[in-house]
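[step 3/7] inverse_fold.run input=structure_tokens len=241
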């Protein structure tokens, strides 16, 4: 049996003297779509920053069987660990196509880059129609599509998406979730970090619940969605399905 693609064991991280993560254990198997859910301030973004090596941390981080805890962010990116950051962070005065090509800046396989670009436009037809448009003039949903497509241009082994639904209308979130299922079907492993707990669990295979920097629940997505305690905590009793 092959080792998990991503393994976190005893992960601790924070900012200065302020601890945020307190011994997090988490695994992502190759080919999975895993949701890491929790409320604002739970430590979700801190975890992604630690995995991407943008933030110093303690504990074990293994990616593809390799210990990456001492690696630099650029080296981790080169291994195929790619993050879609919260807030999208596009280049607003560059076109959609130029933003996408920035995602492939490390690649030298021109034919494969062209194929990846075509695949991105196939996933997001609206981006194809707006390929010459400045990214800063796109709607919020279109910008999120552009950010995901840019990350895909890096040919990721693991795609980590931070707060995909933030500020978006539910109908746009549903479309993006459908696209994530297609991306996973193309062989890309996904770690989806979300405050919108039940949206994330609707497409995930498994899920982890993070509270105050600790994993408090880990189970299949189906189990988590039907957990009354989770429904009360994140939907409220009157809204629970």
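[step 3/7] decode complete -> sequence:
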């Amino acid at each position: 049996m092959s080792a998990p693609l991503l393994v976190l064991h005893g992960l601790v991280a924070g900012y200065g003297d302020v601890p945020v993560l307190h011994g997090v254990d988490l695994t992502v198997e190759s080919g999975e779509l895993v949701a890491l859910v929790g409320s604002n301030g739970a430590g979700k973004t801190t975890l992604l920053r630690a995995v991407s090596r943008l933030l110093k941390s303690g504990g074990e981080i293994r990616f593809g069987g390799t210990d990456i805890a001492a690696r630099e962010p650029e080296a981790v990116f080169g291994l195929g660990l790619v993050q879609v950051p919260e807030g999208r962070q596009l280049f607003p005065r560059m076109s959609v196509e130029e933003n996408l090509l920035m995602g492939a800046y490390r690649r030298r396989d021109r034919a494969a880059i062209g194929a990846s670009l075509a695949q991105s436009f196939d996933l997001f037809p609206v981006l194809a129609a707006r390929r010459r448009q400045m990214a800063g003039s796109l709607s919020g949903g279109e910008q999120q599509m552009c950010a995901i497509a840019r990350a895909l241009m890096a040919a990721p082994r693991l795609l980590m998406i931070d707060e995909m639904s933030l500020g978006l209308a539910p109908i746009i979130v549903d479309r993006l979730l459908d696209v994530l299922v297609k991306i996973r079907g193309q062989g890309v492993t996904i770690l989806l970090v979300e405050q919108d707990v039940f949206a994330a669990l609707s497409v995930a295979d498994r899920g982890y619940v993070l509270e105050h920097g600790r994993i408090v629940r880990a189970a299949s997505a189906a189990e988590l969605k039907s957990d009354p305690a989770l429904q009360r905590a994140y939907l409220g009793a009157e809204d629970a399905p």
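[step 4/7] annotate
The two ends are 37 Å apart (CA to CA).
The longest helix spans residues 170-185.
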